[in-house]
Amino acid sequence: MFGLILFIALMGLTFGRxxxxxxxxxxxxxxxxxxxxxxKPAGFVVGLIEDIRKMRTMHEENKVLRxxxxxxxxxxxxxxxxxxxxxxxxxxxxxxxRQKQMNNxxxxxxEVTEFNQQNKMITINLGEKDGIRANMAVMSVDGLVGRVVRxxxxxxxxxxxxxxxxxVDSADKLAMESKAIAVTVKGHESESYGFIESFNQExxxxxxxxxxxxxxxxxxxxxxTSGKGLVFPKGIEVGKVVEKxxxxxxxxxxxxxxxxxxxxxxxxxxxxxxxxxxxGDNG
Length: 283
What we know:
Largest sheet: 6 strands, antiparallel, barrel
CATH class of the largest domain: Mainly Beta
Low-confidence stretches: 166-172, 176-188, 277-283
Oligomer: single chain
Number of domains: 2
CATH architecture of the largest domain: Beta Barrel
Order of helices and strands: HHEEEEEHEEEEEEEH
Distance between the termini: 130 Å
Helix content: 25-40%
Strand order of the largest sheet: 1-2-5-4-3-12
CATH topology of the largest domain: Thrombin, subunit H
């Protein structure tokens, strides 16, 4: 009862009063000061914990973004590669359509799996199981590349024209002919004949020899295989004549030929399969 009376008396004294007595002020200041001292370090700790949590979240987000970016870069590179491969295959298809209209040959497309710069050879992913044999001609969309020299069950080694100087002897030359189309041949086609015997590593050009003195071959003429040799079938484009000059003793002439094919960036090539009938005529 005394407490209730005291409580009512205090309410009556403080009701409607906005000023504080000095004990109330002292108590208020003391409590506020103490709360301030406790709030600052507590707020710092809470803020630090919140920053650490945010940093962890940002780290996880950055990790996800890096993974996404890596996948995007990988997918973009793969897409570009597929687009380039698709273009090469489309060009290859156009090549085979053109060639099939000219000759009764079969062109087996193969991927280059290895390039041996020292021996001037490439390895392709076709072999005996695919009907590939030694001495078959190999070409790209642009022109003659070389010939098959070794065959395993699933792969074959191809000697490039750039290695002719080290592997070709007098009994294994490449018989070629020139289909004269330049105006210097009086405006009509005239057959020429010679041998591609070597490759000049300095000029990156083929050397054609055994050209007769009266041969009308001139710079600008296109060199194609004649089919009169023992290896290459007739009609495969080799290159374009760059220069013609006198050979030894002035009896025959020599021509330098710029090959059509690029030997440094081979991705897909074609193995030329000649029908068995008439193989002796075209070989």
